[in-house]
Design goal:
11 helices; 20 strands; 34% helix; globular
Length: 371
């Protein structure tokens, strides 16, 4: 007997997020040991006339592979998987790994090769740009531990978040998307943060369950060389298996000229991946009403109510500032009072204070109006 909550989630993913059509090829990418959701997804894709394909993987196996792989091996591996991705119309990724730090001891040089030779061409260039895709995490005990919650309580929270009425949220996003599209200058203020940049001519995109589950953000990107000042993030972030805390960037003419964190050396190694890694590819405001605290999982943390993320690396084509990189690292600053507060200004107009939208047309995005 299938868990009805998983069946509902699979139906939303196949029917709403990816909108599977008859004859389409859909890759279900399952990371970790969870199987029931994968089976539900296979059934839902097939029910809609699609053709499901499945990849299952394990982070501990990937760790061993990356520690021992050669450049030539990664190039051959990437060529196989790129060919498969080119045949896909849609992509659903379920991340259910047991240990977010599984890749922490993979040498930096090997992770760099993986980013440049595998993740960049297959995911950032092919999957993101040419398929209908959605990525989500699975509510296992490891994820509950990261959220500092009992497993059962976390599962209830998870399904509240993931089965939210995203169509309602989508409508409430329209005024913010319009305002960001019309805005020229942005200023962010918070403890350790005073940052200014332009988004003029870049545009904006609303995210309401079509690409990520959970969802709840509207994003743009800064004009590449316009970023000036300092930002200090107040949420931990995991990149390639390493946890970073207290990340702070100082910018001059768009470039990160100073970067510090709990692991400053490794942070700068990531930023030196390529030229674009020291420039910003995305600016976004997050407002999912059920997600209030960080859990070291980007898919959740970047949607925290009253948050923003400011992302080193690759820009999305929909809001393209020209920045290209093998890196796309969503780093989060929460501006609710318990995290130090803060303000967001659009063209010198205060639009959000201490995590709450304060202009009438944006108030439907405050938490009590989205639940």
């Amino acid at each position: 007997m299938r868990d009805p909550r998983l069946q509902a989630l699979a139906a939303n993913l196949a029917g709403y997020s990816v909108d599977v059509q008859p004859g389409e090829n859909i890759l279900i990418d399952m990371i970790g040991s969870e199987r029931e959701l994968a089976i539900c997804l296979i059934e839902e894709v097939a029910k809609r006339g699609g053709r499901p394909f499945v990849e299952t993987s394990d982070r501990s196996v990937l760790r061993a592979l990356l520690k021992n792989a050669t450049k030539e091996q990664m190039e051959l591996w990437a060529s196989f998987d790129l060919k498969r991705m080119e045949a896909m119309d849609g992509y659903i990724a379920v991340r259910a790994g047991e240990n977010v730090n599984e890749l922490a001891d993979v040498p930096s040089a090997n992770m760099l090769l993986y980013d440049q030779l595998y993740r960049h061409p297959i995911h950032l260039e092919r999957r993101v740009k040419h398929t209908k895709w959605v990525v989500l995490r699975y509510p296992n005990a490891s994820m509950a531990q990261l959220a500092n919650m009992p497993t059962e309580a976390f599962e209830n929270f998870y399904f509240d978040v993931c089965n939210l009425d995203y169509a309602k949220m989508d409508r409430a996003m329209d005024p913010l998307e319009k305002l960001m599209t019309e805005t020229s200058h942005v200023r962010l203020v918070a403890p350790g943060t005073d940052l200014s940049f332009s988004i003029q001519g870049i545009g904006a995109v609303k995210c309401a369950g079509l690409r990520n589950i959970p969802d709840g953000e509207v994003y743009s990107a800064p004009v590449r060389d316009s970023v000036q000042g300092t930002i200090t993030y107040n949420t931990p972030s995991v990149y390639s298996g390493v946890t970073f805390e207290n990340i702070s960037f100082t910018f001059d003419k768009g470039k990160i000229v100073k970067a510090t964190s709990s692991d400053t050396v490794k942070l700068n190694e990531i930023l030196d991946t390529d030229e674009g890694a020291r420039y910003i590819g995305e600016f976004s405001l997050g407002f999912n009403p059920y997600i209030l605290h960080p859990m070291k999982d980007t898919l959740f943390d970047e949607k925290i109510a009253g948050s923003l993320h400011f992302t080193p690396g690759q820009a999305y084509e929909e809001t393209d500032n020209g920045n290209r990189s093998a890196v796309h690292w969503d780093l989060v600053l929460i501006q609710r009072p318990e995290y130090g507060g803060g303000e967001v200004y659009f063209d010198d107009r205060l639009i959000r204070k201490d995590g709450r939208f304060v202009v009438p047309e944006l108030e439907p995005l405050n938490p009590e109006n989205l639940k």
